[in-house]
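User: I'm writing a short report section on ligand binding and want a predicted complex to refer to. Could you take this sequence and alpha-D-glucopyranose and write out the structure as tokens? A short remark afterwards would be nice.
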Amino acid sequence: MDTSLLARARQCFLAEADPAVQAEATGRFDRHAPRLLHWLTALYGRQPMFDAWLLSLCTTLGTLARARPPALRELDRERERDPDWFIHEKRVGYCAYVDRFGGDLNGVADRVDYLENLGVGYLHLLPFLRARSGDSDGGFAVASFEEVEPALGSMGDLERLAARLREARISLCADLVLNHVADQHPWALAATQGDQHYRSYFYLFSDRRVPNRYEQTVAQIFPQTAPGNFTHNDVLRSWVWTTFYPYQWDLNYAYPPVFASIASALLQLANRGVEIFRLDSAPFLWKRLGTSCTNLPEVHQILSALRAMVDLVAPGVLLKAEAIVASTDLLPYLGVGETLGSECHLAYHSGLMAASWTALSEGRTTLLRQLLDSTPPLPAHTGWMTYVRCHDDIVWGVLRSDVEAAGDDFTQRIGAAAAFLEGRRPGSFGHGVAFQSADGHAVHGTNGMASALVGLDSAGNAVALRRFALMYGLAFAVGTVPLLYMGDELAQPNNEADEDAALIALDSRWVQRPRLDLARLQQQLDPSTIAGKANAAIKALIAARHDPAFDPQASVETLACDNEALLAIRRGERFMAVFNFSDKPQSVDWSRLHAGDGWTTLLQTADDAGDDTGMLPAWAMVWRKKP
Ligand code: GLC
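Assistant: Sure. The structure tokens for the complex follow:
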């Protein structure tokens, strides 16, 4: 560590600090800045003018720290005293599009009571910043980090919503789309006009030679609708790196100003009240020839630097990795080795999600168990986001290495699971939709709302309701922060709205992006309706997690039960659960699971499921506790 650089950085950060908060700012600098400098030096230390760039960044960070509003400073202090706040508060998350949930940001504010009633403590609003006009990948093609999408409101509305949510103790989570910007973002426009500084923000290639070499090792995200990773731009007369859609230009993090720009976009949103950032497409932030250009060591250096910066300026803020990658590549996003516990606070457990859908379609839990058994313990002060559905497809590729480790052919085994969920196998109950897949050759993703995938289409379908509760039950039993996807709490079916037909035709992920169904909303407390039944099932799960026997800090272990249809888990000393993923009743030997004497039923999804020597009906689940 260059101590003279650190001392100069300290001066820049603390310049003009208000004497009232000088001691606090100094303490944070001394605790976190060495880490920030360490990672930035690793990434950019060899660049010309590194020192000057770093000092200017520290000046900006100091300004942003001083601009933090008093209510958020208070939150920072509270959370510094209790870094496990997001774990032990047993929060449940909710994820929604602003327009589809509330019309606009003010409409979302009007629905805060609804979220409170449901028991939600975290709200992820899908992208709401100004997006490019025309196609925008559901807002993931950001044209301005400084403006809200006009149809959704203003920055003032965002601040008011964040304050209203804070009052309700619901943390606002927003996407930070940091891998790419829209081709209409001012940086891309400046690059198009030939500005050398902004050209360096992107990966531009004058001919196909280098892109062709990259294509040999880089996978494709939308192989059918946006094949390849490069798009030709006629004005630039160059190939632009576009991992996702052609209008989403990848940012070049090897150029230090990109880091600084994204860092200040993050902190400005934090100062408006965003408490959790979903770091969109995090694995793709660094490229190197001859590699998959995902999960590279520099990605972890960038995320560790962002984390140190957040700890320094806005320590109440959490970072959440959206890393939809093989389970072996996932844990590093929470920090391992040198970055132990100092990278992201949260990560999506996408492998668990995909394996639970595989278990449901196969009627056996081998892959699920294998995945849970190979999930290493969480580093301190970190957690798993668990979920059943989200706005994206079930990305099957995350299971490839687990399936191959089990000695199976990925395309065959997962292709069969996907086909089952998509209603293409005899006896299947699912109404999913294949995504970017070619039957029999490639299995990419499956779309559909949870209720469609479990075949829940009528209130009288008790077994389908059990399948629905089973899927959510697993996410709620295993996760640190389980996530509800908007509409699932009312068992909304796939989106078949006429006005969305064109979107669905273009990108079938829109089948799981319906508008909140107001008729179902009216039925949420009516147990004779499908919406009321699903709602009661979700509320029962939320309530059961609040039982003192449920310890969210305890790790999850699987229990041997000699029956592939069942999954039995234990979490801490006083909580266990058994899930039947098959279409037949299975017998459960509670005493063998060490959950007999002294244990009582905390939750069950079939009347006769809790009996001590009983059978667990098809797709039923029991949670037990020890007083
Ligand atoms: C993330 C989003 C997805 C989007 C992609 C590109 O994976 O979840 O919806 O298409 O990033 O931004």
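A remark for your report: The pocket of alpha-D-glucopyranose is lined by residues 137-138, 140, 177, 244, 280-281, 322, 391-392 (CB under 6 Å). Residues 340 and 424 are 44 Å apart (CA to CA).
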